[in-house]
Write a structure and sequence with these properties.
The complex is a heterodimer of chains A (235) and B (384). By secondary structure, chain A is α/β, with parallel strands linked by helices. Chain A contains seven helices and ten strands. Classes of the chains: A alpha/beta (235), B alpha+beta (384). The complex binds adenosine-5'-triphosphate (ATP) and magnesium ion.
C-alpha cells in the first residue's frame, strides 16, 4: 500500500473477544489492513483499545475468533499450536516493554537462545549471537547478566535476540515504555536503522507520540476499531 | 542450553534451595536409618544357613529334649552332623549388660557355623579348657575383654555364679554376622547340674542339625520329627531360617510400623519439594512464557522444571546418603545389643535414590502441567 512494496502481512476481517466467566468482552472488531514489506508501522491508541491483543495475533501467540492473518505466504490462523511455535521461531522477532531476558543467562546466551531451535552448530550460534550484539553496540557487555545491565542495555540485548534469527517481521510492544528519554531515543534510533538499512518490517505498539514519529506509518486503534485515516509520516 | 538454565535456576534462590536440600537430606537420612533398622531386624534371617535345621521340643522352646536324642538324630538319613546347646541366660554384672549366651558342644557347633571365625589355636584352647568360653569381637570390645580374662556370669535359669575363662574372640565372616554372642562348654554346665540339681542334667534346649545337602532340608526335618513321634518328648524341626523368623514374628508389628513411618517421611518430603517447585515455577512463569514465545515447546519446559526438581532433590539425596554411613555407625556402636548387625545395605541406597526420583517427579508434575497449559499471552501479561 506504500507503493512499490507488496504486503508481507495481510489481515482480513479479524475478530477477537475475551471470555471472563459468562461475560464476553469484545476487543477487536472487523480489523482489515495490510502491512507492506519493509514497513515501520506504529500502532497507537488509548489504553485498553486492543493494541497488545492485535500485536499478539499477528505474532502468532494468540488465536483470533475469526478472520485471517497471512504473513508471507502462510495463513497463520490455520496453524496448530505446535506449527505456530515452529513458525514463530523462524518468522517473528519479539521486543517487549520489560525486555524479558532470561535472568540466569548472560547477554550472549540470551541472544543465542532462539538459535537453539535452528539447525546451527555451536560455533555458528555464538558467531551469530556475537554479530547481533555488535549491531546493537553491546559487544563489551556480552558476558554480563541482565541484572548487571541498565534498562536501555537490556532492551538492546532483547533487540539482538529478536534479530538474530533474521525473522520476517519484528514486533515490539511499547519497547520504550519503561525507559528514560535518552535510552528511548537510542532504542528508537536502532529500530529505525534496522528498518532503513536492513529492510526489516517492524510493527510497534506505542503510547508515545514521539516514538510513533519515528515510524513511517501510523494506525490508530480505538475501542477495538481501526481508525482508517492512517497517517503517512512524511519522510 | 536447557541444562544451563535449569542448573542455574536451581540455585537462583540460594536460601530456598538450601532449605529444601536440607529437608531432603534429613528425610533421606531418616529414611535410610529406618530402612537399616528394618534390615538389621531381618539380618538374622538372612544370615541363616539353609543347610542347618533346628530341632526343639514340639510343645515349646522352653521345654528341653533329652541328650539321648543325639545318637538317634545322627542315624536319620541325610544328617551329617549334630550339635546341641542351651540358652543359658546368664547376667554379666548387671541386667542392662544383656547379651545372648549359650552353652554348646563346641567341637560340632563351630563346625556347623563356619561364619564364626576362630583361629585353630583359639579353638584348641577352648576345647582344652572345661571352663573356657568364646565371645564375639563386638561384645569383647564393648567390655574390654582380652583372651585369658575371667568372666563371671550370674545364672538365672542355672543358679549360682559361673566363672569362665575367655579362650578366644571370634569375628564374623562378613558384615551380616552377629558378633555379640557368647559361648561356653555344655559339658561344664551339665556336670555342675548333675551335682547340684540332678533332675535337670542331661537336657538339651535345642539340637542343630547339619544336613548333607540344602535341598534335603525339608525331607530330613520331616524324618526327624517322625523318629520322635509318640516318644516322651516330641520334636519340632525347622530350617534355621524358619526358626529365626518365628522369633521375629512377635516383633513383626513393630517392623510394620517402622516401614510405615519410613514411607510417611517420603510423603512429607514430597509435599515440601512440591511446595518449593510450585513457588519457583510461579516465579518463572514469565521466563517460560518467553521461551514458549520464542518457539520452545512443552517438552522443553518439562525438561526445565523436572530437571530443576531433580537437581535439588538429588543433591539432598546424595548428602543424606553420605550422612547415613557415619550416623549408622554411631547408632550401631550404641545399639549393639539390640541390633548386632547394623549396616547400611546397598538395597537401602537404591531405595534412597528411587524414593528421591519419585519425589522429584511427583513434585514437578503439576507445575509443569500448569506452565505448559497457560496461554502465552496471559503468561507474558504477568510480567508487567
Ligand atoms: N486474558 C484476558 N481476559 C480478559 N480480558 C482481557 C484479557 N486480555 C486483555 N483483556 C482486555 O482486552 C482489552 C484490550 O487489551 P489490550 O491488552 O490488548 O489493550 P492495549 O491496547 O494493549 O492496552 P495498553 O495500552 O494498556 O497496553 C482490555 O480491555 C483488557 O482488559
Ligand atoms: Mg498493551
Amino acid at each position: 500500500m506504500t507503493g512499490q512494496n507488496e504486503a508481507i502481512v495481510a489481515i482480513r476481517n479479524l475478530y477477537k473477544s475475551y471470555h471472563r466467566e459468562s461475560l464476553t468482552v469484545p476487543v477487536l472488531h472487523d480489523i482489515t489492513f495490510d502491512i507492506a514489506d519493509g514497513e515501520f508501522l506504529a500502532l497507537m491508541g488509548p489504553s485498553g483499545s486492543g493494541k497488545t491483543t492485535l500485536l499478539n495475533l499477528i505474532a502468532g501467540i494468540d488465536k483470533a475468533d475469526s478472520g485471517t492473518i497471512r504473513v508471507g505466504d502462510v495463513d497463520i490462523t490455520t496453524l496448530t499450536e505446535t506449527e505456530l511455535a515452529h513458525w514463530r521461531a523462524t518468522h517473528v522477532g519479539f521486543i517487549f516493554q520489560f525486555y524479558n531476558l532470561i535472568p540466569v543467562l548472560r547477554a550472549v546466551e540470551n541472544v543465542e537462545l532462539p538459535l537453539h531451535l535452528t539447525g546451527l552448530s555451536r560455533a555458528e550460534r555464538s558467531e551469530h549471537a556475537e554479530m547481533a550484539l555488535q549491531m546493537v553496540n553491546l559487544s563489551h557487555r556480552m558476558d554480563h547478566y541482565p541484572r548487571e545491565l541498565s534498562g536501555g542495555e537490556q532492551q538492546r540485548v532483547a533487540i539482538a535476540r529478536a534479530i538474530v534469527t533474521d525473522p520476517t517481521i519484528l514486533v515490539a510492544d511499547e519497547p520504550t515504555g519503561d525507559l528514560d528519554r535518552v535510552s528511548a531515543e537510542e532504542i528508537l534510533g536502532m529500530m529505525e536503522r534496522l528498518n532503513r538499512e536492513m529492510g526489516k518490517t517492524i510493527i510497534m505498539v506505542t503510547h508515545d507520540p514521539r516514538a510513533a514519529k519515528r515510524a513511517r506509518v501510523m494506525k490508530h486503534l480505538d475501542k477495538g476499531y481501526l481508525n482508517d485515516n492512517a497517517l503517512q509520516n512524511p519522510l | 542450553m536447557l541444562f544451563k538454565i535449569l542448573f542455574r535456576n536451581a540455585f537462583r534462590n540460594r536460601l530456598r534451595s538450601g532449605l529444601t536440600i536440607l529437608g531432603i537430606t534429613v528425610a533421606i537420612l531418616a529414611f535410610g536409618l529406618l530402612r537399616t533398622v528394618i534390615s538389621a531386624w531381618y539380618a538374622g534371617v538372612e544370615a541363616a544357613s539353609v543347610s542347618r535345621l533346628v530341632t526343639r521340643n514340639a510343645i515349646s522352646i522352653i521345654f528341653p529334649l533329652p541328650i539321648s536324642y543325639k545318637e538317634k538324630l545322627r542315624q536319620v538319613e541325610g544328617v551329617k552332623i549334630v550339635s546341641y546347646g542351651n540358652w543359658f541366660g546368664g547376667i554379666y554384672i548387671s541386667e542392662k549388660n544383656f547379651f545372648p549366651n549359650f552353652c554348646v558342644e563346641p567341637r560340632t557347633y563351630f563346625e556347623l557355623y563356619p561364619e564364626f571365625i576362630l583361629s585353630p589355636a583359639e579353638k584348641k584352647a577352648l576345647l582344652a579348657d572345661r571352663k573356657g568360653c568364646i565371645a564375639g569381637e563386638k561384645l569383647a570390645g564393648k567390655f574390654g575383654w582380652k583372651v585369658g580374662d575371667t568372666i563371671t556370669l550370674t545364672g538365672t535359669i542355672y543358679p549360682g555364679t559361673w566363672d569362665f575363662v575367655l579362650r578366644g574372640i571370634y569375628h564374623g565372616r562378613d558384615e551380616t554376622i552377629d558378633e555379640t554372642l557368647f559361648y561356653f562348654q555344655w559339658d561344664y554346665v551339665n556336670e555342675t547340674m548333675k551335682k547340684k540339681i540332678p533332675r535337670r542334667a542331661d537336657q538339651v534346649g535345642f539340637y542343630i542339625v547339619g544336613v548333607a545337602r540344602p535341598d534335603l532340608a525339608t525331607e530330613v526335618a520331616v524324618a526327624i520329627d517322625k523318629t520322635f513321634k509318640n516318644s516322651l518328648a516330641e520334636t519340632l524341626t525347622e530350617t534355621e531360617k524358619a526358626f529365626n523368623l518365628g522369633f521375629l514374628a512377635m516383633s513383626e508389628a513393630i517392623v510394620m510400623a517402622v516401614q510405615l513411618v519410613s514411607f510417611v517421611i517420603i510423603i512429607i518430603i514430597m509435599a515440601v519439594v512440591a511446595n518449593t517447585m510450585a513457588m519457583t515455577t510461579r516465579e518463572r512463569i514469565g521466563d517460560y512464557s518467553i521461551m514458549k514465545t520464542l518457539g520452545f515447546g512443552g517438552r522443553d519446559i518439562a525438561i526445565l522444571i523436572f530437571g530443576e526438581s531433580l537437581v535439588v532433590t538429588m543433591i539432598g539425596c546424595a548428602l543424606g546418603m553420605i550422612l547415613t554411613f557415619p550416623v549408622a555407625k554411631a547408632f550401631s556402636h550404641n545399639l549393639v545389643t539390640f541390633f548386632p548387625v547394623f549396616n547400611v545395605s546397598v538395597k537401602t541406597l537404591y531405595l534412597d535414590v528411587a524414593a528421591s526420583i519419585v519425589v522429584a517427579c511427583v513434585a514437578a508434575v503439576i507445575p509443569t502441567q500448569r506452565s505448559i497449559s497457560i496461554r502465552i499471552a496471559d503468561g507474558l501479561r504477568r510480567i508487567g
